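Problem: given the chain below (152 residues), write out its structure.
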Amino acid sequence: MKEQIENLKEAVDDGLSAARMAEDLTDKNLTLEDKIRNLQVQIEDLEVFISFFFLFFFFPSFFFSFLSFSFSFLILFFFFFFFQALRELNEELEQGHLETEKQLQDEIDYQSTLLINQVFFLSFFFFSLFFISSFILLIFLSRLVRLTQLKN
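Solution.
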């Protein structure tokens, strides 16, 4: 009887820890999503900055001289690769986010399965406890009836 109660306590503790882990993973997922949004905003800000830089430095120098045009071409070439690197970084961040989200979802599914199993075992133990207590009550009542019959 004490062993079953200990088993029930362990099952409840396991279920609570699985629920806490699911909450922690959800919080971690939300934090990662916020970080990705912040990084995307930073990328957009950099793209705007580079666009303004390109407008103010490339076009005026185009009209002044061939050297300025060559310099502007180098700047354009640099910014092309810079934009390319930003796009690749954005794609890597998005891919990493998707992988992390999939891993977190898998972990939540696994913890949910564990929680369902613990609830099943807990209900089984409660049913067993009810059955045993009913059986003990039946024995007690039968002995009580027998004692009253013996006294009469």
